[in-house]
Amino acid sequence: MMWKLNARRWTRLARQYHAVDATGSVAERTMQTVILVAGDIGWNSYKGIATVGVTREGISLQLMSPFSIFHPPLLIPYGDCHIEPTRWYLIGKTVQYTLRGVGDVKMIIHDDLQVWIESQAAKLAHAQADTRISNDEFAGVHATG
Questions:
Q1: In this structure, what are the phi and psi dihedrals at residue 12, rounded to the nearest 5 degrees?
Q2: Going edge to edge, which strands form the sheet with 27-37?
Q3: Tens of pLDDT, residues 66-125
Q4: Quick check: pTM over 0.90?
Q5: Mind giving me the DSSP string for the chain?
Q6: Burial, 54: exposed, middle or buried (Cβ in 10 Å; 0-12, 13-18, 19+)?
Q7: Which pLDDT score is estimated for 139?
């Protein structure tokens, strides 16, 4: 019961961004930290248990077992991401994702992870230059500010 209660922000994201196929990542980084905050009190920290992936469609998120109980894999389209630099308590440089589909839940990640996401998305966009995927699909992945 407690895990399900603690998954409420992830569950709100999953209603909009549930990944049908969690195996489509072109590149992945394991043991990453993802923090979810919303308008309510508190936050959820998935410190060192998140796998972040870059796909043609967007950014994938999934948690390691057994933490993945009540936390289905997510796929957030690049176009739904508005990214701004922010400071999250004592963590240091971070960025905050505001997601078009669930605007009240914010996702916080380390700045170095954002740099990695941007570089992987750029490589993917370059590799796909001769296909129908346009650079506009990757436009949301770059931090503003």
A1: -65, -40
A2: 74-77, 58-63, 43-54, 27-37, 106-110, 93-99, 81-87
A3: 888 889 999 999 999 999 998 877 678 999 999 998 988 999 999 999 999 999 999 888
A4: no
A5: -HHHHHTHHHHHHHHHHB-S-TT--SEEEEEEEEEEE-SSS-EEEEEEEEEEEE-SSEEEEEEPTTTTTT---EEEEGGGEEEEEEE-TTS-EEEEEEEGGGTT-EEEEEHHHHHHHHHHHHHHHHHTTTSS--GGGGGGGS---
A6: buried
A7: 53
